Amino acid sequence: MVTSGLRLRSQVCTTEVVVVRAGSEDAELTCGGHPLVALDAERAGLKPVDGLAGGTQIGKRYTDVEGTIELLVTKAGTGSLGLGSTPLELKSAKPLPASD
User: Fold this and answer.
1) Strand 7-9 relative to strand 16-21: parallel, antiparallel, unpaired?
2) Most buried of 25, 27, 61, 66 (most Cβ within 10 A)?
3) Distance, C-alpha 27 to centroid of its chain
């Protein structure tokens, strides 16, 4: 069950995340093509699926196109975050309002 505040880790690399926004409780969050696991779970030592080793950046937020899920990276790694088989995108900063 995915809920806001949940801390997860990758099975393929050192990536660790905090769920900021959980759109659906049954969402399948992945890293490197494999499901994220609880922070205290053993790392399985799996290899990233081809094309899903783009890496994550510490302190950055990743989201899906609809903006229903948002993850904050607390520890960077080599796998790419995803929602199922769809890669998540790096969330861009909102522009500040112009001041004249």
Assistant:
1) antiparallel
2) 61
3) 12
User: What is the extent of the structural domain holding 30?
Assistant: 7-90
**Residue 96 within a domain:** no
Read off the pTM: 0.87
Burial class of residue 29 in the structure, from the number of CB atoms within 10 Å of its CB (0-12 exposed, 13-18 middle, 19+ buried): buried
Strand order in the sheet with 61-63: 37-38, 7-9, 16-21, 70-75, 61-63, 89-90
Task: Note the pLDDT tens digit of each residue in 30-87.
Answer: 999 999 999 988 877 788 888 888 999 999 999 999 889 999 999 999 999 999 889 9
What are the distances in angstroms from CA 87 to CA 52, 53, 58, 98? 8, 10, 17, 33
